């Protein structure tokens, strides 16, 4: 028993004319008769009675039609549900990032300009981001360091300078630049492990040749208050400092070690992009001045 047999049965049940139906379906009348006969053989009963030139359902046929109607109605419901889900999917962007420290302003601007698009963003490491892109489970990834894979396209969004932030009354507050090793005995404020920027600072401390005394490890949102209180010093991207109109601390350039924080934007090569994904990609390129 297959859907074609059920379709022909249903059509015949409602038309009650074998010849007219065969013309409508563009098949020969013998082919239609054979299809119905095979269905009746499988069920072990006749489904139609002949009354003159008409073919009408008998009691078995009426029982069977009720269930066949349910099958085709459910298939139609499924088709409509998939259509609606497809529409919703086309209005959604799924983004994986290795951190959110640099994304807040862009995300706010994107959502304000595209109120009908839903954005789902979550944290992953680079290996997970590559796997998710290749499986088609995410649309884009924004990562440090930029992703490298033969199946993935990546562009550099920006390279950020790492700055040293110290309290206004710090002994080095009159300096414009400094070697990080000079602060090896200072108390440091650091970001929690899941931030990709934490990987950057760990590498910088290692290059500077010391292990920092980290007195507080937490979210970036607390940095402003911590700097006002003079709890310690911190390494912060220049772009983050520039977000504050009146940052409550002194910012120094690092003479040594010099370090660039490089952020990449990635997607699967040859990926078919619906309009929503094209809009998101174009917004990223425009926001970060990518040619």
Give your account of this protein's structure.
The chain is of the alpha/beta class and 291 residues long. It folds into three domains: 82 residues, Arc Repressor Mutant, subunit A (Orthogonal Bundle), CATH 1.10.10; 95 residues, D-Maltodextrin-Binding Protein, domain 2; 102 residues, 3-Layer(aba) Sandwich (D-Maltodextrin-Binding Protein, domain 2), CATH 3.40.190.290. The chain is 43% helix and 25% strand. Strands 3, 4, 5, 6, 7, 8, 9, 10, 11 and 12 form a ten-stranded mixed β-sheet that branches. Strands 1-2 form a two-stranded antiparallel ribbon. α1 crosses α4 and α2 packs across α3.
Oligomeric nature of the chains: single chain
Largest sheet: 10 strands, mixed
Task: Please give the count of helices.
Answer: 10
Distance between the termini: 58 Å
The overall strand count is 12
User: How many domains, in number, for the residues?
Assistant: 3
Rg measurement, Å? 33 Å
Mean pLDDT: 88
User: Can you name the CATH architecture of the largest domain?
Assistant: 3-Layer(aba) Sandwich
CATH class of the largest domain: Alpha Beta
Which blocks of ≥5 consecutive residues have pLDDT under 50?
Answer: none
CATH T-level fold name of the largest domain: D-Maltodextrin-Binding Protein, domain 2
Beta content comes to 25-35%
Helicity level: 40-55%
Structural class: alpha/beta
Order of helices and strands: HHHEEHEHEHEEEEHEHEHEEH
Shape verdict: rod-shaped
């Amino acid at each position: 028993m297959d859907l074609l047999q059920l379709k022909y049965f249903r059509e015949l049940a409602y038309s009650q004319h074998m010849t007219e139906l065969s013309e409508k379906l563009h098949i020969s009348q013998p082919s239609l008769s054979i299809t119905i006969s095979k269905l009746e053989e499988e069920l072990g009963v006749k489904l139609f009675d002949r009354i003159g030139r008409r073919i009408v359902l008998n009691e078995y046929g009426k029982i069977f039609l009720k269930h066949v109607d349910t099958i085709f109605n459910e298939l139609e419901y499924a088709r409509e549900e998939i259509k609606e889900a497809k529409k919703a999917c086309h209005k959604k962007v799924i983004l994986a990032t290795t951190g959110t420290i640099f994304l807040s302003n862009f995300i706010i601007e994107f959502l304000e300009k595209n109120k009908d698009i839903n954005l789902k963003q979550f944290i992953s490491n680079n290996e997970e981001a590559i796997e998710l892109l290749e499986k088609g489970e995410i649309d884009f990834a924004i990562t440090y360091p930029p992703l490298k894979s033969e199946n993935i396209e990546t562009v550099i969004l920006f390279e950020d300078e790492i700055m040293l932030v110290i309290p206004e009354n710090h002994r080095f507050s009159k300096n414009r630049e400094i070697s990080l090793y000079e602060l090896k005995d200072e108390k440091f404020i650091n970001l929690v492990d899941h931030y990709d920027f934490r990987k950057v600072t760990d590498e910088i401390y290692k290059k500077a040749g010391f292990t920092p005394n980290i007195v507080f490890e937490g979210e970036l949102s607390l940095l402003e208050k911590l700097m006002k209180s003079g709890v310690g010093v911190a390494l912060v991207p220049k772009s983050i400092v520039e977000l504050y109109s009146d940052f409550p601390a002194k910012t120094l350039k690092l003479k040594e070690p010099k370090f660039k924080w490089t952020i990449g934007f990635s997607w699967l090569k040859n990926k078919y992009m619906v309009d929503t994904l094209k809009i998101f990609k174009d917004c990223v390129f425009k926001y970060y001045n990518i040619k």
